[in-house]
UniProtKB/TrEMBL annotation:
Organism in which the protein naturally occurs: Urochloa decumbens
Domain Plant heme peroxidase family profile: 27-328
Organism classification: Eukaryota, Viridiplantae, Streptophyta, Embryophyta, Tracheophyta
GO cellular component, one term: extracellular region
Name of the protein described by the UniProt record: Peroxidase
Cofactor: Ca(2+); heme b
């Protein structure tokens, strides 16, 4: 009974924090650059078409950049900043060592700076490029609310501490997503981004070798698939070998990822974890039927908008970087 007064005091504080977060998100708007840089999204799309035509395998990495940005300090383009002599930035954190596409972001930003100097933020560039990467990989489109500002701080330690790990189980992943205002549905829907791209051996080798005292390999991983992965990933130290996250379809945004997961052929432990929760397994099995592609596409766009609102800087906060890899 003695804790009731504390709860009464804490509740308004929690509501105040939530309201502050919602207010920042509300300041983002579709068409934000309609007067200051009306061709902004067209410029991004034009460059993205050239980038993906030349290198279709970049669709996954460019989508991943936006994810990895938003889960650390919010969607503020802090993932793009270079390390300095006195600071190791997010992009050099262990979970981000395999990130690609930085040069493509710089290329798009340069085009925007030439057309509209000091106007379009790098954080917005990442959000638009992520959407266009999905569209150009034959996935859905969605309106992207814009108006984010760029952060000035980037920490490798924060990235290591806050990014959802490939080995995550449902309780851990739920906690990380909830801390960013995202729920279980967002978790299972955004996991569908694993339909695009590849992964280096160390990110999943723990499922193949010395998994536990009782099992050499992860018993939740289909044994035939595990054998196939071992032919590519010879040891946990193999940093050169890549595996498709959605075998046979890794350059196309579709629902085949869920069919692999339903057959216990998800590459990561975090993929396999989706079969351990009633809410997520129901979604996986439903989308895996191939009868609800339109539902997944709609859900994905909605969850991407929700994720794109996480921790955004707006108004006079942060800055508009001239070059995405260095603060002004």
């Amino acid at each position: 009974m003695a804790i009731k007064p504390c709860l009464v005091l804490l509740l308004p504080l929690a509501l105040l924090l939530l309201a502050g977060s919602s207010l920042a998100a509300a300041q983002l708007e579709v068409g934000y650059y309609s007067k200051t840089c009306p061709n902004a999204e067209a410029i991004v799309r034009d460059e993205m078409e050239k980038i993906i035509f030349a290198a279709p395998s970049l669709a996954g990495p460019l989508l991943r950049l936006h994810f990895h940005d938003c889960f650390v300090r919010g969607c503020d383009a802090s993932v793009l900043l270079n390390s300095t002599g006195s600071n190791m930035a997010e992009r050099d954190a262990k979970p981000n060592k395999s990130l690609r596409g930085f040069g493509s972001v710089d290329r798009v930003k340069a085009k925007l700076e030439a057309a509209c100097p000091n106007t379009v933020s790098c954080a917005d560039v990442l959000a638009i490029m992520a959407r266009d990467a999905v569209v150009l990989a034959k996935g859905p489109s969605w309106p992207v609310p814009l108006g984010r500002r760029d952060g000035r701080v980037s920490s490798a330690t924060e990235a290591a501490d806050n990014l959802p790990p490939a080995f995550g189980d449902i309780p851990l992943l739920t906690k990380i997503f909830a801390s960013n205002g995202l729920d279980l549905k967002d978790l299972v829907v955004l996991s569908g981004a694993h339909t695009l791209g590849t992964a280096h051996c160390p990110s999943y080798a723990g499922r193949l070798y010395n998994f536990s005292g009782a099992y050499n390999s992860d018993p939740t991983l289909d044994s035939e698939y595990a054998d196939r992965l071992r032919t590519r990933c010879k040891s946990a130290d193999d940093t050169a070998m890549l595996s498709e996250m959605d075998p046979g379809s890794y350059k196309t945004f579709d629902t085949s990822y869920y069919r692999h997961v339903a057959k216990r052929r998800g590459l990561f432990q975090s993929d396999a974890a989706l079969l351990t929760d009633a809410t997520t397994v129901e979604y996986v099995q439903r989308i895996a039927t191939g009868k609800f592609d339109d539902v997944f596409f709609k859900d994905f766009g909605e969850s991407m908008v929700k994720m794109g609102n996480v921790g955004v800087l707006t108004g006079a906060e942060g800055e508009i970087r001239k070059k995405c890899y260095i603060v002004n």
